[in-house]
């Protein structure tokens, strides 16, 4: 679309048709240009198996098209209709302990169920046939939030599918036995038929089996998506296909999923009560952009105000919806959409806010903000397609995430996203832009690569990271990285075997800390800071050894590790690598990353006061700088370049600075030469 998309989930099937013209009128008032139609309408479209009713959908699509509103048409397969599970009860998902999930909510299907897959394909074929040439059709929305409620199923159908998946992966039972380390606890299999998903067992199931089950579950759902996508691509090769992601969602390997999407889209529901909400939403935005390999993505769902699924659902403060919408655009989104258009009267989400409330729009505290944002976005065509450039890469790998958080580790308190956030927070606060990357990606465009707790690493991934440093890259890695291979077998020869030479250290043992306790570490300048969660017994490699030894830049300052390395730095090849043997507190992390980044030549977007987020998008005709004030105070951004504020707040520039009221935003079109190189 030549314009930023603005709109949301529209569920006209919940309303009498007399209401629809009013919807269109209000959509036009709000500046809506794209709506997602029919996400949960399967039981309306196919009231009984094989009988279809598309009349209502035809009528609403015509109305929308008549109003100039494009449609992101949903395939409606996220909530199977009652007749399907009635005819095929075996399609209902089963938990690890054998409990079957019943219909009555949504997403009640086993991803491997042939009955579900067949019925879904049949419906999508009918829809593609009917609407392929509809002038309102702008995008296909497959399913909805895959895996949100049912990321895995342990039923017999899933067991059969899991076995096939394993056969494809390993070829022979012997190879599987080796990969699963099946001699531990007498688990050698003699035939494929004996193999099960990791159902509830007396104690820990085999971790390699669990890891494969994670891989399989992500793939099984991806196959559901693929079945629908294939139908749509055959009929409408030029219509983009998406399915909406859920931020940093553990069950699905979004790297693999995003490769199959034309446009990445995301649902974002930051908690207004969470002081880190802005940082977390920014991180999700950077992830979406990175998953799409830099291409613009779409904020598919957010709420104008309250959700209804937290224990206490706080309202957004005035301006917060607008601020968080701009945050998505600043981080690469070309569209801002909501769940949902009109607030439901019935059902489980009737107290979830919507653009059109139960009462009148005139009385709604959020409607004016919705209308204002819609009008503003119309002025930002120049942003469409503009790219965000990052100098820093942060490594995230789903397989490592899954393996790291399986039980029976030195500490179950070690959670990947806490660690990723401990890096990300420092960058966010310093307005340094980062992309997320896989361990095997080309890293050459980054001045600095951050590797939070990469417990599992493939041979290729390890080689790539080491090669990056050898070739002149700078890297920071934290504890419990490089420990196992892709089968979750320990890499022998001293931890972290694939990175020892690069880091110039050997980790001899892990000494996790009790929850809530800290240990001081002392830096070279004599200052001490508290660290938590984890410590390690680290030896510096002898200077004569391969690659020489690392330098200690901080040491533990009490307990059994007193005086031993806590943070190290090693010159390796043409680059260098830092290693953190503990979790630093936020101040020390920020200071360390600031120093490393400065040395690597990483530059902040602009120097802005605390609480102001700055991001730049590069368009062919010049760059666009987004300044967003997350604080409760008015602030002046002095370092901001001159240039037109596309939101029209041009007058408010005391002494050349950009003045931002609390939660306010400026979108500055920069003169060609004022933008930095990244
Ligand atoms: C999303 C979902 C929507 C709606 C929304 C409420 O997870 O895709 O259908 O349920 O949450 O916040």
Q: Which terms summarize this structure?
A:
single chain; 678 residues; alpha/beta; TIM Barrel; Rossmann fold; Immunoglobulin-like; 10-stranded mixed beta sheet; 27 strands; globular; binds beta-D-galactopyranose
The helix-and-strand class reads alpha/beta
Strand order of the largest sheet: 11-10-12-13-20-19-18-15-16-21
Q: Report the CATH architecture of the largest domain.
A: Alpha-Beta Barrel
> How many strands, which pairing sense, and closed or not: the largest β-sheet?
10 strands, mixed
Summed over residues and divided by their number, the pLDDT gives a mean of: 96
> With helices defined by DSSP (H or I, 4 residues minimum), what is the helix count?
17
CATH topology of the largest domain: TIM Barrel
Layout of strands and helices, then pairs:
Blueprint: E1 5-10, H1 20-30, E2 34-37, H2 42-45, H3 55-66, E3 70-74, H4 82-87, H5 114-131, E4 137-141, H6 156-170, H7 173-179, H8 207-235, E5 241-242, E6 244-245, H9 254-258, E7 265-267, H10 277-291, E8 297-301, H11 320-330, E9 333-338, H12 367-377, E10 392-395, H13 398-404, H14 416-429, E11 434-437, E12 448-451, H15 459-470, E13 474-478, H16 500-503, E14 505-510, E15 518-523, E16 528-532, E17 536-540, E18 551-556, E19 565-572, E20 575-580, E21 583-584, H17 586-600, E22 612-619, E23 622-629, E24 635-637, E25 644-645, E26 658-660, E27 665-669
Parallel strand pairs: 1-2, 1-9, 2-3, 3-4, 4-5, 6-7, 7-8, 8-9, 10-11, 10-12, 12-13, 13-20
Antiparallel strand pairs: 14-17, 15-16, 15-18, 16-21, 18-19, 19-20, 22-23, 23-27, 24-26, 25-27
Helix pairs in contact: 5-8, 6-8, 10-14, 14-17
């Amino acid at each position: 679309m030549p314009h930023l998309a603005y709109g949301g989930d529209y569920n006209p099937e919940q309303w009498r048709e007399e209401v629809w013209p009013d919807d269109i009128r209000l959509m036009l008032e709000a500046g809506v240009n794209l709506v997602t139609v029919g996400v949960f309408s399967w039981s309306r479209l196919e009231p009984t198996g094989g009988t279809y009713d598309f009349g209502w959908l035809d009528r609403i699509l015509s109305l929308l098209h008549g109003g100039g509103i494009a449609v992101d048409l949903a395939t409606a397969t996220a909530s199977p209709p009652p007749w399907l599970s009635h005819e095929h009860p075996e399609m209902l998902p089963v938990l690890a302990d054998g409990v079957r999930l019943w219909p009555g909510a949504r997403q009640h299907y086993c991803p491997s169920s042939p009955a579900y897959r067949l019925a879904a394909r049949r419906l999508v074929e009918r829809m593609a046939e009917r609407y392929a040439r509809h002038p309102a059709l702008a995008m296909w929305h497959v399913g909805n939030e895959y895996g949100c409620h049912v990321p895995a199923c342990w039923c017999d159908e899933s067991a059969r599918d899991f076995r096939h998946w394993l056969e494809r992966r390993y070829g022979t039972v012997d190879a599987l036995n080796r990969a699963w380390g099946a001699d531990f606890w007498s688990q050698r299999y003699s035939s494929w038929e004996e193999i099960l998903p990791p159902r509830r067992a007396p104690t820990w199931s085999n971790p390699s089996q669990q890891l494969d089950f994670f891989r399989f579950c992500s793939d099984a759902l991806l196959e559901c998506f693929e079945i629908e996508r294939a139908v749509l691509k055959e009929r409408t090769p030029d219509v983009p296909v998406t399915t909406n992601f859920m931020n940093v969602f553990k069950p699905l390997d979004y790297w693999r999923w995003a490769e199959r999407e034309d446009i990445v889209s995301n649902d974002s529901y930051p908690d207004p009560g969470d002081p880190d909400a802005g940082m977390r939403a920014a991180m999700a935005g950077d992830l979406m952009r990175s998953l799409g390999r830099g291409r613009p993505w779409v904020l598919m769902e957010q709420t104008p105000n309250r959700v209804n699924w937290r224990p206490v659902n706080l309202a957004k403060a005035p301006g917060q919806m607008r601020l968080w919408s701009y945050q998505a655009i600043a981080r690469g989104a070309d569209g801002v959409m909501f769940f949902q258009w009109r607030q439901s009267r019935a059902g489980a989400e009737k107290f979830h806010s919507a653009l059109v409330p139960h009462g009148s729009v005139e009385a709604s505290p959020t409607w004016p903000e919705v209308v204002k944002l819609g009008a503003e976005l119309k002025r930002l065509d120049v942003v469409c397609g503009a790219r965000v450039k990052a100098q820093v890469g942060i490594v995230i790998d789903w397989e490592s995430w899954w393996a790291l958080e399986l039980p029976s580790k030195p500490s179950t308190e070690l959670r990947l996203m806490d660690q990723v956030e401990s890096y990300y927070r420092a960058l966010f606060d310093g307005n340094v832009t980062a992309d997320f990357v896989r361990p095997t990606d080309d890293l050459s465009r980054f001045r600095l690569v951050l590797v939070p707790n990469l417990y599992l690493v493939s041979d290729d991934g390890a080689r790539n990271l080491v090669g990056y440093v050898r070739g002149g890259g700078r890297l920071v890695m934290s504890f419990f990285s490089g420990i196992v291979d892709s089968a979750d077998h320990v890499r022998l020869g001293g931890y972290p075997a694939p990175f020892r030479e690069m880091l110039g250290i050997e980790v001899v043992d892990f000494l996790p800390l009790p929850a809530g306790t800290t240990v001081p570490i002392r830096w070279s300048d004599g200052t001490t800071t508290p660290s938590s969660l984890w410590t390690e017994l680290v030896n510096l490699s002898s200077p004569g050894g391969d690659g020489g030894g690392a330098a200690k830049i901080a040491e533990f300052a009490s307990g059994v590790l007193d005086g031993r390395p806590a943070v190290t730095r090693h010159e390796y090849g043409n680059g260098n690598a830092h290693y953190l043997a503990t979790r630093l507190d936020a101040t020390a992390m920020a200071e360390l990353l600031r120093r490393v980044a400065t040395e690597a030549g990483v530059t902040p977007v602009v120097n802005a006061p605390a609480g102001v987020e700055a991001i730049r998008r590069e368009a062919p005709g010049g760059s666009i700088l987004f300044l967003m004030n997350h604080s409760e105070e008015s602030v002046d951004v002095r370092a901001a370049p001159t240039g037109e504020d596309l939101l029209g707040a041009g007058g408010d520039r005391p002494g050349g600075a950009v003045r931002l009221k609390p939660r306010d935003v400026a979108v500055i079109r920069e003169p060609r030469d004022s933008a930095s190189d990244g």
